[in-house]
Specification:
The complex is a heterodimer. By secondary structure, chain A is an all-alpha fold. Chain A has a domain of 120 residues. In chain A, 93% of the residues lie in helices and 0% in strands. Chain A contains four helices and no strands. In chain A, helix 3 crosses helix 4. Chain B is mainly alpha-helical. Chain B has one domain. In chain B, the strands form two sheets. In chain B, strands 1-2 form a two-stranded antiparallel sheet. In chain B, a hairpin with a 2-residue loop joins strand 1 and strand 2. The chains are: A mainly alpha, B mainly alpha. Chains A and B meet through helix 1 and helix 3 of A and strand 2, helix 1, helix 2, helix 3 and helix 4 of B.
Chain lengths: 186, 287
């Protein structure tokens, strides 16, 4: 009973309000008043203006800027990574190329040196042979000349000796013949 | 024993002819609270943004709130640009409704009593338990959706949604009887659309008012019956209701804004959109 009595206290005013709503203007029963409506609209308008100008717009702008910045950074990072990879590939290729070139140069130099060595050896041999040949020739001619000189020297000596020995016994004619004979026998 | 709150907010005093009601006091206090918050926020913005440092504290918090809201808005608008464009209006609605709903649950609201002769009046009353405020917000939301609609797709194209003289003219020009008949039916549907715009405002405002007011009545009754412990779970539920109603109001306002600013080509799309909106409208009151 007590509870019912208590609840009735709440229900009766609601029923009364419904009566007012049914009989008169429902908006008035709900408390709609144009002055309050305008006042609340102004309150809301002020709040909207304040939040718009000093909260939503600057922060939303900043958020967008930050998004753009992060996207750019990520894009840049990708690009840098790609460039780094490309550079690395290029570097590797370049190293391989350089090595190949270097080994080619070394091989060429070696073969060049070999060739030069062989050539020098061949030239040296030819020179030696030439010198030897010249020396032989010189020796030969020297020998011949010495022999000829020696012959004439000997002939003179023999003549002189024969003259000394035969001066008195032979005449000029016999002398000449004698000389000739002795020369032939040499 | 606290009396059950009446449907209309009670005037506490008058400023010339404006009756300052307890709900109006609450809404103004909420406004001041927001202004103080904005002052601190701007101090933070100056501190962190000018030197492009990573934001901390209040700025970081508000950035988080914005990101959270924008994430939900994107689900409705499917376009971040549009979400950002609607953010000030819709975000203000959400924050204001949410904060005033939750402030209404603080101790002292409805329990600080002033005596005037024989009757006693609570000095504070949750802002959203005054139909004037909810109606003001609903009218504002629907009005801004129409203004943005006209600004986005042009006055005549927008007017053609409600007074379909353009479609009627096209149908008559095509000289096909079926088309003309459809256009006439569509013309009357367009006139009904005008009433649906009024229904939007009424449903938005009454839904919010009714839910929060019912919560207040429930809390009062429970507190009168068993004042200790038992109201606590209901208090938690009221926290949830406050959030849900803020979300519902905001999302519907956003749907109206999105629909109004979407340029539709042909009847099929228009029908599709209004059907979508009706579906949302029907789902939401169940909450």
């Amino acid at each position: 009973m007590n509870l019912l009595h208590y609840l009735a206290q709440f229900i009766i005013p609601i029923a009364r309000a419904q009566e007012t709503a049914a009989s008169g203007n429902p908006a008035a029963a709900l408390g709609v008043d144009w002055r309050l409506f305008v006042a609340q609209l102004i309150n809301f308008g002020i709040l909207l203006f304040v939040l718009w100008k000093w909260a939503f717009v600057p922060i939303a702008k900043k958020l967008e800027e930050r998004t753009a910045k992060i996207e750019k950074s990520l894009h840049d990072a990708d690009r840098i990574e790609k460039e780094k990879r490309e550079f690395e590939n290029w570097r590797q290729a370049e190293i391989i190329k350089t090595r190949q070139e270097a080994s080619a140069v070394v091989t060429a130099a070696q073969s060049e040196a070999q060739k030069a060595k062989q050539q020098i050896a061949a030239e040296t041999k030819a020179e030696q042979e030439k010198i030897v040949a010249q020396a032989k020739q010189q020796i030969d001619s020297e020998k011949n000349r010495s022999i000829a000189e020696a012959k004439s020297e000997i002939a003179n000596l023999v003549t002189a000796a024969a003259e000394k020995i035969l001066r008195k016994k032979l005449d000029a004619k016999a002398d000449q013949e004698l000389i000739k004979e002795s020369l032939k026998s040499i | 024993m606290a009396a059950i709150p009446p449907l209309a907010a009670e005037p506490i005093f008058h400023i010339s002819r404006l009756p300052v009601t307890n709900s109006y006091i609450n809404s103004t206090l909420t406004l001041f609270g927001f202004i103080v918050f904005i002052i601190f926020l701007n101090a933070g913005i100056k501190k962190y943004y000018s030197k492009s440092r990573a934001p901390k504290g209040i700025v970081n918090f508000f950035e988080g709130v914005l990101e959270f809201m924008l994430g939900y808005f994107d689900q409705v608008t499917h376009d971040r640009k549009k979400s950002v464009k609607f953010l000030p209006v819709v975000g203000t609605l959400f924050l204001f409704i949410l904060v005033s709903n939750w402030i209404g649950l603080l101790p002292g609201i409805n329990s600080v009593i002033i005596h005037r002769g024989a009757e006693t009046l609570p000095l504070f009353r949750p802002a959203d338990t005054d139909l004037n405020l909810t109606l003001a917000m609903a009218v504002f939301a629907v009005a801004i959706s129409h203004i943005l609609g006209v600004a986005t797709i042009g006055f005549f194209r927008y007017a053609n949604r409600f007074i379909k003289l353009g479609d009627l003219y096209q149908a008559v020009k095509s000289l096909k009887p079926v088309n003309i008949l459809t256009a006439i039916v569509e013309f009357f549907v367009g006139i009904i659309e005008i009433f649906s715009e009024i229904a939007k405002m009424v449903s938005l405002s009454l839904r919010l008012f009714g839910n929060i007011f019912a919560g207040e009545v429930l809390m009062t009754v429970l507190a009168g019956l068993i004042p200790y412990l038992v109201p606590l779970p209901f208090m938690a539920l009221e926290l949830l209701v406050g959030l849900i109603q803020a979300v519902v109001f905001t999302m519907l306002a956003l749907v109206y804004l999105t629909m109004a600013t979407t340029d539709t080509h042909g009847h099929a799309e228009i029908d599709g959109h209004s059907g979508h909106a009706e579906a949302e409208e029907n789902q939401v009151p169940a909450v």
